[in-house]
Structure formats: structure tokens, C-alpha cells
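User: Some background: our group keeps a shared notebook of sequences we're curious about, and every so often someone picks one and asks for a predicted structure to add to the entry. Today it's my turn. The entry only has the sequence so far, pasted here. Could you supply the structure so I can complete it?
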Amino acid sequence: MKLHIKKDDTVIVLSGKDKGKKGKVIFSVPSQGRVAVEGVNVVTRHQRASQSSPQGGIVKQEAPINSSNVMVVCGSCKKPTRIASKKLADGSHVRACKRCGENIDK
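Assistant: Of course. Here's the predicted structure to add to the notebook entry:
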């Protein structure tokens, strides 16, 4: 499954308990169609003590949400937008803003 959102994109949450929040995509799970956004859907995990974290304890981290619940924010016009596919002169495709037409992939 192909996602319209990639890592390090700035997105806005469209639905759910965190509606209206903006954040950066931390990671995506294309096989499940989900993305994790920083500061959104923060869950508490109980971490067992290990060599990497000898203390263990309770850790807060972002859990993935469905990619259909977020929309990319354009870097140039600073508005939420749908994604267009633009063909370049060399034949490759880039993601573009539907509102202003600027490339989202730099």
C-alpha cells in the first residue's frame, strides 16, 4: 500500500481526539496505512529494565494513527492540502501542493 505521507512531513490531524494538532511525521507503516505524528496519540508504556535502559519504568511515546486522518501542510503556503503528482522534465514524479502548485518534495 502506498501512502501520500512520508517521514518528516508536517501534517495536521483531521479527526479523532487530537483534531487540529500539527506535528511532524516520526515514522510510517505503509503495510498498515498508519503514521506516527509527534505529540499526537501519546500512549504510556511500561518498559522492562534492560541494558539499553537499566532503569526501566513508565515511558510515553507516540502510537501510529490512520493515514486517512491526517493531511499534509504545504511548506510554502502553510495550508493543509491534498497531494498532486507533478511530472518533471527528466520524467520523474514529485509530490506537489494542490493549492499553490509548489513541490512538497525538495
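Suggested note for the entry: Residues 74-106 form one domain. Strands lie at 10-13, 22-29, 34-37, 42-47, 57-62, 65-66, 70-73, 80-81, 83-87, 93-97.
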